[in-house]
Amino acid sequence: MLVMAATADDALLSALRGPRNEAAVAELHALLLRAARFELRRRDVRDDDLAMEAADDALLAVLAKLDTFRGASRFTTWAYKFALLEAGVKARRRAWRGREVMIDEERWPEIVDRGLSAQERLEQQELLRAIQHAVRTELSDRQREVFCALALNGVPIDVLAERLGSTRGALYKTLHDARRKLREATGGER
Q1: What is the pTM of this model?
Q2: 109-135 average pLDDT score
Q3: Phi, psi of 44, deg, nearest 5
Q4: Domain map of the chain by residue range?
Q5: CATH classification of 118-185 is 3.30.530.20, yes or no?
């Protein structure tokens, strides 16, 4: 069975790399649609239009990156991941549609660990105050905005990127830089 799957996998990849074969593209799309439906069901989202949209976007991404496939896994496994990613992003965006994205530091998390001693709780509160102060004084406006939205308010990074007209990579870099500044300001490890 594994040999047949690998042979079918190789045949699909060859057909996609050759002159455009509509049957191979349709077969790949069907695989991606199954993957998108699986991921959306896993997230309790029952929306065939959203699954189709995710499969369509995944198909475009796979075809655009076909030359980057190295063969470290089966081709269908590699392609399947594109659909899982697209479906996950679309599900998160849908969940946040219409919701306000908090990008300020109004909501600091309550950190309460009942297993801590009074001394440890006091130290934890002091550290939290030091972090709050560093957020206000050490971070740039953009770093503060990104740090508060992602780290404090739990906004998914792809949702924030869309709302701010940015990219995930740019936000990861901004968050990384903000965390580094906070570690330095509070005497934490580098």
Answers
A1: 0.59
A2: 78
A3: 60, 35
A4: 2-96, 118-185
A5: no
